[in-house]
Sequence to fold (268 residues):
Amino acid sequence: MKNLKFHERFKLPTNLNEEQRRFVQAIKNLFQTDKLDDREYHQITQIPRDKVKEALASYFGKALDYYKTVQDYIPSDFLGCLEALGVIYKSIYAQNQRQLDLHIQKLLKESKIDLGVKFESGQFFPEGSKLLDEKLVDDVLNCLIPKKHKNILDPFKRGLERYLESTKDKSKLKDTIENIYEALEAFAKFFNNNDKDLSGNKEQLIKNLKLNKYYKEMLSQYIEYACMFRHAIRQKIPRPELNKNEVEAFIYLTGLFIRLGIKSSNNQ
Fold:
């Protein structure tokens, strides 16, 4: 009982919208004033505030007003706040970044319920199965950090961002499929050292990965599935409806193929 949170001890109901609102308000409070006495927040208050306001105003297309505080530029909706934190993180010094990261992790941990997101390297990502995230998302992101993998990393991260946005806009699920597919297509070009699309790279990729014919069939189905969404507009056909579990599985499957390639390269 000692380790249970207050609402758990008293069996109080929880509400996702309310917990998201609390998170946003806690972030706004953090940037409310330039002079906080609490040493825990000291480094946060020493940020280049004008630079941060310029970055936020530019990102959200707002008029810049130096009389406003950083807090004024942070949206009040949950996803908008997450976007703002990513912008702020990029605009501040390294020591500020570490402090901000610690504070965000603390807020996520203290939330009454899982907010469904994680904060890594200055960006928020959707959180699914912790074990699968670690192996099929985090490992992929970490291995693709070098600049030479930017054309793979960017669509992968963009797909994760669209997946996160799908919480409020389900149409983003289709964008997720397209971006995540683009990441695997770019990876196949890199791994096979050519410029073919994924359909044309399929057989060589399976051969280079030294996988059996069943993986070839799996990749064929993967391509066919994704193409329903990628080419629907051009072919003037409606795209099938999606649900989050289905798209999450697609992300993991993409991560599986990329991770196989990474491990294959490391073993050579």
